[in-house]
User: What shape does this take?
Amino acid sequence: MKLLKHVGKPTSEILCIFATNLFKSIFANRKQYFFLSLMKKLSTFFFSLLAVASLHATTHIVQVKTTRYQTITGFGAACCDGAMCPYGNDTQPVRLLYGKTSKIGLNIMRMEISPNFKGDISYSDIGWDTPYDWHGSLPSAKIVKDRGGIVFGTPWSPPGDYKTNGTAQGGNRQSQGNQRGALKEDCYSKFFPWFNTFLDYMKKNGVNVDAVSVQNEPDWWVDYSGCLYTPQQQLNLVKNYAKDLDRVKYKGVRLISAEPLGFDPQYSNMLLNDPVARDQIDIIAGHLYGHPPLGNMKSAAVLAAKYGKEVWMTEHSVTDNIDHLPNWSEQLVFARELNECMVAGCTGYIYWYMRAHWAFVGTGEAKYNPGNTKNTLLPRAYVMSHFSKYVTGSTRVNTSASFKTETNSPLESSAYIKGDSIIVIAINSTETDHNLKVKFPEYVKSGMHLLSTGNEKANLCKATDLTIEKPVKEVVTSMPANSLSTLVFMIDREYTAIDEVKQTNNDDGPKTYYDLQGRRINNPRGLCIERSANGKAVKVFIKN
Assistant: This one.
């Protein structure tokens, strides 16, 4: 229709032109079929009005800026399934999920430091070599390390001999005496030497563990393996005894704070506000049960950024209580959690089980079939890959948008820079198609749109090159209903002013250095990542 040649003019002008033409036509033909013609043209008019209004109402804007925040170490999951059972010799889950050349690109693996004094335990009287020991995660850990990944261990409990209730169990059951199990004060001095025993076993068997955590969920009284600490008790342990963690023999090993159930900031803040304890802690950590990312975790991340500490979300399961494979709406809940963690200041996101019907790898359980074939990738793994394949190793940058990213917002976004690339995550959880205009601080010369719109294989991670004929500072692309998008743009360095952060005398506080896999290094050489106390991160080249 003739109206199309006016697209681009103000809406009011378009409508005025159309109305003028409409009434000219009506009066010119009033002698024939006046009423029928009038109704037909009026209906056309109103449909055109709706089309023009839609054209001008569905484009949302994300402005990428230059202020830098945290560098993203990576993404991962725990090496267990069923009743928290390590995989033993079944290494297929990590083979499917880990490494740069895998489809998913995970690079952090969590394992339990079981409450043993030796690594490999078997019961000869019943002929059972239990996987519930340090050896149970060893085969998977070897593969993750071989593929350039990070392995860390978390105790659910220290050995029962060290505890007030005399057992590794948490004590929250009548048969356990309803006694709250905690680390005995006279055993504080034994705790980190016990960690050294674990590290020694793993090293002798071919795995250099990258980090160890003080405790899984120190604020949650359980009837399975568990140990309680108050924030003050954790401070006393770390401040007075963490120096016994042998960082010389186990070079590069980092210490992670205890991991409270809902990322209670009291646990990490008390450590970071004490200069002695702060010097011992490298990463603060926590879980998200009952507290979404933009609550407690975001609060805890403030002090961590001030002192140059990483922030890891080390366990959460999304929609794990469902009796079916997650539908696409539930997958987008997971996508929003990932995005909100990044916005909150997270540097490492570690999901709960790798293998579960609500996780990344199928279990083979018949009640969740079809679609739950054992040791095959599930749709949620591909949702994770939108972040793990592209955001790992990047630095988050500031954005402003025509919509707010809040807890479970219908529209969400975040942006990152990595080398010569700008990465934008966009999530549309509404039932309406939208357009997304991305504005850049400098010119980009090419782009790729990775799009997922459903659980079906054909709707997951569809990659399309964006047509950019010459360097531009804004790009418009689609943001379909119920979709997850990862947009990757190549910076045109002939125009760009997004430079690496320059070292200045105003950067106060200590510097910490990491390799390009996100592992801390004490004697940096060559290309590495430097983190300042103010939270800024920059790639630097340090000569020998």
